[in-house]
Amino acid sequence: GYPNVGGGSLINSLKRSRACGVGGGPGVTRCLQAVQLGGHIRLLDCPGVVLDSGGGAAAAPLRGALAPQRLRGGLTPACAILRRCPPQQGGGD
């Protein structure tokens, strides 16, 4: 799935122990990890997958694949977000 969406936290909750590392930013899970939940249930925690969509410099930060601290400039992702928003219609008094 996508990075930084809570897969490790979900596994830890189901396991009721700290079986997977978790953090507030992407890149905490570095390799595949199998966690035995019950007799016949094994869950896999793996790094997130982000497919290249050709979205340019804004694609990785908007998909959670790049930590905000690693951005060289926040203007490109911010402009990409604003382009997705509808223009204001009408005004106030």
From TrEMBL:
Lineage, opening ranks: Eukaryota, Metazoa, Chordata, Craniata, Vertebrata
Name of the coding gene: Nsn1
Any Pfam family the entry gives: MMR_HSR1
InterPro entries documented for this protein: GTP-bd, P-loop_NTPase, TRAFAC_YlqF/YawG_RiboMat
Domain of life of the source: Eukaryota
MF annotations from Gene Ontology: GTP binding
Record-annotated G domain positions: 1-50
Cellular component, GO annotation: nucleolus
Organism, as annotated: Chaetorhynchus papuensis
Gene3D superfamilies hit by this protein: P-loop containing nucleotide triphosphate hydrolases
Protein's name in the database: NSN1 protein
Keywords: GTP-binding, Nucleotide-binding
